[in-house]
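Sequence only, no structure available. Ideas?
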Amino acid sequence: MENGTFVEIDYVGKIKESGEIFDLTYENIAKEKKIFNPHVKYGPVTIILGNKQILSSLENRIRELKVGEEKTFVLETKEAFGDRSADFIKLIPLSNFTKQNMHPQVGQFITLANNLQGRVVSVSSGRVKIDFNHPLAGKALEYEVVLNKIVEKAEDKVNAVFSYYAGADAKSVNIDSGIAKIELSSNVELPQNAKKKISEEITKHVAGIKEVSFVENFGK
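Reply:
I predicted one. Tokens follow.
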């Protein structure tokens, strides 16, 4: 499958050593394993090959699948999120946080001004130790993946891009004369920068689309 191909997949991602599930698309399995999160949108996901939406090592294996095929792939540490590094564990003065009315707690995830996110390991002696390693660094991963289908319809491709960035499906998608009109559900609000990004991705990846417009609904 070539770059730019839209593929719909289902998957379960586990830590190889422990079998702990860290990501999945199946709501029934989430409930069965008691890891269901009501704030997570479960269901098949559509990705664009070559668009860096998932690990490249996983994407390369998905390219080998046939529609309807299910396979289990093991990604060793270096293929996944790499080894843990002591260089990514930092000591930051507590005063840097209190000046911003922030009070770090052990286990809390904190995002710094440069969008670097880390987990608070300890708070003591006026210093905060933060681990900026990826939570899955140092671990081999196992993915069970099903290639459901190759997405062909332009409307479905538009909705796939929208859903990826908005976290919800569009209420409707209509395409006419190269213009994709996306109707948002009343509970979906998108800032202008998100609309700009979605528009750019749609016109880049969906053939024939030259312009994107958004229709917002307001009500109960």
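The first helix runs from residue 27 to 32.
Hope that gets you unstuck.
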